[in-house]
Amino acid sequence: MANVDIHAHEEVHAHDHHEDHDHHGDKYQSNFITTYIFSQDHKMIAKQFLITGIFWAFIGAAMSIVFRLQLGFPEESMAWLKPILGKWIVLNDAGMGTLDPEFYYALVTMHGTILVFFVLTAGLSGTFSNLLIPLQIGARDMASPFLNMLSYWFFFLAGAIMFSSLFLSTGPFAGGWTAYPPLSALPQAMSGSGAGMTLFGVSLIFFVVSVLLGGMNYITTVLNLRTKGMTMWRMPLTIWAFLVTAILGLLSFPVLVSGILLLIFDRSMGTSFYLSEIFIQGSALDRVGGSPILFQHLFWFLGHPEVYIIIVPAFGLVSEVMSVHARKPIFGYKAMVYSILAIAFLSFIVWAHHMFMAGVNPFISNIFVLFTLIIAVPSAVKVFNWIGTLYGANIRFNTAMLFSIGFVSMFISGGLTGIFLGNSAIDIPLHDTYFVVAHFHIVMGIAAFFGMFCGIYHWFPLMFARYMNETLGKIHFWGTLIGAYAIFWPMHYIGMAGVPRRYYTFANFEAFNTFAPINMFISTAAIIVFGLQILFIINFFYSIFKGKVRTEKNPYGANTLEWTAPVHAGHGNWPGAIPHVHRWAYDYGKDGIEFIPQTVPLKEGEKDMGAH
Amino acid sequence: MGGLLIILSIILIFVVLVQIGRINEIAVGLRGKEQAQRQANNRNAVMGLVFMVAFLIFVIVSFFAFKDRMLGFGPHESASHHGGLIDGIFLTTLIITGIVFFITHILLFWYSYKYRGQKGRVAKYIPHDNRLELIWMVVPAIVMTFLVIGGLSVWNESMADVPDDMKHGLNEGEFLEIEATGFQFGWLLRYPGATDFKLGTRDFRNIKAGYNETGQVWTDEKNHDDFLADTLYLPKDHKIRIRIIGRDVLHNFYLPHFRVKMDAVPGMPTYFVFTPTKTTEEYRESLSGYPEWQAMADPSDPENKFKKWETFEYELACAELCGDGHFSMQKIVRVVEMDEFKKWYNSKKSFYSTEVNPPKETEVLSRETSLEEGHGGEEGTHTGEGHGEGSHNVEGHSTEESHSGDHTNGTHTSGGTTTHTEGTHTEETHSGGTHNAGKADGKEGTNAGKATTTEEGENKGKKGKIIKKIFNKGKKEKTGDH
Ligand code: HEM
Ligand SMILES: [Cu+2]
Ligand SMILES: [Cu+2]
Fold it and tell me: Inter-chain contact B124–A393, Cβ cutoff 8 Å?
């Protein structure tokens, strides 16, 4: 490699003011429990988030396979699942097993909740914010390692509660991940709305505690613990993304708690925040004056920022990985930052685009249409900047890079369908159809997963000092890219034909039941893609123990600080002084030098892009 | 045994893949890192190109394969006035986003291919380009402005309520208001009678399962001519205002062919105004030109000589998750010419005249007719439910239409003779054993309702079978475990 020897530029700062905070090889990590379980080392906590996230992703994906079997092969017997699902598979006299409709809805609900909150919120931003914030800004750990540890354990608790609800005799909550009342408020409306909903609500509240503890920490750390020279405009885009994500979470998640709290009051204390004029199961309820719409406002005030809480970290990861492997600065760094900020701001004033058909005043929708479609502008800027980054590059195709390119493809495909849905008039026929399912899975589900895979493959050597297997990685990538489109692209057509989502079977409608071959195709693709994810999991755990060993500090020739730490960095990250920063993170190919790490001082008269 | 074999072969596939991965890794070690990387660059860059071409072809081909199922295309034309406008703005958006989709995908994979890592290549140092960035900000902004303006004008036209001075009725320039009440799991369709064309007020505390399903307030004379129907009959080219009620949880009144969709919200009636532009017959006619609609309606039944297009019906569905029977809330929608509509309309007997305050001697008989025609289908759904009398004691809230106040003092027996009649009749006519079958049977009831609609000229033998299957199972499970 024609480049600068990094080690030569690693300066030792004898009077480093951070040195007081150095708790390397410290009392906090003395035994197995404090090292691996109640660890306060951000690197270990990141791994905990990641592995828990993978566990949940497996559960959530397996659930989707079960309900896809129902949709794709409604005539096939599911008796073979009886040993796992027990009474939720109902056998008839001929031994034919069918999925119970209520359990179908329970599966869909749990699938959505698990993937949105446990995998793509905690598993994604929890993992990478923890891993990268201290390492990339040059801090020894989070501002509060203790709160950071609590953040993980609250997440764990939330997960444990949700998991336990799967074993209730009345089943887990089944009213959709959006949990709209009155369905979620009235136990008599659905059996999952009983104890299942109680556990669902409690679990989410603990989850929010986790997000808030984590978020406060991330924000404080980014704002206060940057090493000398790391100005805001020198931060890698990952850090910007995590900072903005944390702010989004901090401002929006508490609103979800208030929404759920009022729901719990309605459920157990006889209040009527969301209930009015209800006649159910043969009796008129003594509850009037509330409005179910209120819950929808509260929910989507979180819900829309939440989709950006999921995607913004992926923006950051993809930008960083793409720049490193394109050997080129990210195109339009400042535009990337401003577009993240713009998207984040706008994401707070578009929530009602989920409620165009909910009975809110149609006049109000005008404003939400306007703001929603404005989001397309910063989104377009990001896409063009990524493409611009590839222009004139010298691309190193490894799995991480492939996933970052795949991410851009998914973000384009899914973002464009958002333009249909954001335009309220077009949302009339498309709302709550498979078109919406296709939209949000591509733009949020698959795109965010691609961002996460891109991050895992890229930073795996940083976490485990070994590499993941590249061949398996590439099989995983190409299979998943093709498979994901095979699953979700045809759903657009089904949705355009008007087929509603959340249908256990389409047999009751002449208009909706003509898609059996496509549904079969989709389900088959889903099973194959699921198999590929198992291949990823095998690769992941195999590589932790048997992967190729990382010997170099900076295997990718990257500029950011995490690659200046020793291969087996202890608690505190850098054994000696913390490195100082002299330039922005994207000096790739500058003046014919392949890469110039941030620790390299500026030459005489050299202009730093991070200066302003 | 077969299962075991499948599991074993799956495991085998994974083992093989992992071995391939390991061997390749060793090969990389032998060949040298740089060379292996270059080879990977070439392979994956080409792969990207191949993927792009295949993907874009797939997009085009699948588009044309599904064209006849899509909004506004071919047989899927809108059957309402505003629906046509929606399809128009949809098509515009489709074209614009389609162009962007193709351009960006071609650039993305072309650049990835062109600038794949090669020996001796040096990446260009281009940190930014303000002019370019300005262009790709301003152009999308302009396009969005165009789409917002187009979309909002369609939206405001589609969502406009009927003008204040418009009259209820069936004459030219008047509108017909119909009430659709969503409940677990079905729809109640209430028409205003021909004397006033106005729907009478309702109060959820008046609801009596299996009897006064919509909670009509009998002291309101507007109610006396209202009737319930099992099929949503609509006159062609006449403005319809659907008043949408959620009786228990959220539902969504969804007419796919008419581009109508609106939540049914308990406690807050919503509405949707639209004008059907094609009768069911005309729609069938337009379908007859498409090969997929020429297939037999029910291939499994040799007796059934109908083609698909001949048995086509518009449908009403629910598009908001409302419980475990959400997927079954189907009703037939039938659009007919105004003359025919009037004939149908006038043949309907009001619920009040047959049930609540009928001429004494014909009482029993008329009850039966009303069950069959009116809401026979839904009967079962409300079975086994106690008549929650206690709930009538709620005080002091003004429900949407019950401004009367008669019903907020808990007694319901106050006031005139009509109210009194209501009470008695509930007891008399609905104490029979037909209605206490339990929840699962209730669902079967919903489907029985569907069977009734079949008599109206469709052939849905197969469908009935499937539904049976599902519900038999549901029933068993319910009685067994819960
Ligand atoms: C160009 C940008 C986008 C626009 C204009 C847009 C617009 C919309 C609209 C209007 C809906 C509601 C559709 C309906 O229910 O009828 C929707 C649903 C959704 N969007 Fe987007 N969206 C955009 C980008 C995103 C992104 C980036 C994400 C995630 C990272 C996302 C995730 C979702 C999800 C999860 C839903 C479904 C929620 C549910 O009902 O369960 N969207 N989008
Ligand atoms: Cu949104
Ligand atoms: Cu429903």
Answer: yes
Q: Which ligand is nearest to the CA of A375?
A: 1
Q: Decide if B311 is inside a domain.
A: yes
Q: How far apart are CA A544 and CA A562, in angstroms?
A: 19
pLDDT lower than 50: segments of chain B = 361-482
Clarify whether residues B199 and B317 are in a common domain.
Answer: yes
Residue B442, domain extent: 374-482
- For residue A163, what pLDDT band results from cuts at 50, 70 and 90? very high
Does B445 map to a domain? Answer: yes
Same domain, B260 and B180: yes
Considering the domain architecture, whether residues B142 and B186 belong to the same structural domain is answered as no
Compute the distance from residue B245 Cα to the ligand 3 centre, in Å. 13
Q: Do A392 and B270 touch (CB under 8 A)?
A: no
Structure letter (DSSP) for residue B200: P
CA distance A64 to chain B (A): 18
The residues in B 331-360 lying below 8 A from A, measured between CB atoms, are none
Residue A605 in domain:
yes
Tracing tokens 């072309």 back to the chain, one arrives at B110
Q: Closest by alpha carbon to B219, among B417, B19, B374?
A: B417
Is residue A488 very low, low, confident or very high in pLDDT (cuts 50, 70, 90)?
very high
The structural domain count of chain A equals 2
User: Ligand 1: does its nearest atom lie under 6 Å from the Cβ of A372?
Assistant: yes
Contact with chain A for residue B468, Cβ under 8 A: no
- Residue A11 scores a pLDDT above 70: no
Centroid of chain to Cα B412: 36
Interface of A with B in 287-346 (CB under 8 A): 288-293, 326-329, 331-335
B252/A357 touch (CB, cutoff 8 Å), yes or no: yes
User: A75 or A299: which carries more pLDDT confidence?
Assistant: A299
Backbone φ and ψ for B335, nearest 5 degrees, come out as: -100, 130
Residue A492 alpha carbon to ligand 1 centre in Å: 14
Closest ligand to A178 CA? Answer: 1
B253 membership: H or E segment, kind and range: strand B251-255
B332 shares a domain with B191: yes
**Residues spanned by the domain of A571:** 551-612
Boundary of a domain, candidates A261, A290, A319: A290
Closest alpha carbon to B145 in A418, A364, A419: A419
**Which residues touch B122 (CB under 8 Å, ≥6 apart)?**
A394, A589, A592, A594
Alpha helices in B119-187 (DSSP H): 130-159
Whole-angstrom distance, CA of residue B117 vs CA of residue A238: 24
CA–CA min distance A297, chain B (Å): 14
The total of structural domains in chain B comes to: 3
Predicted confidence (pLDDT) at residue A240 exceeds the cutoff of 90: yes
Show which of residues 58-87 on chain A sit within 8 Å of chain B, judged by CB atoms.
Answer: 74, 80, 87
- The helix (run of H) or strand (run of E) holding residue B107 is helix B81-114
Residue A262 within a domain: yes
Assigned domain for B15 exists: no
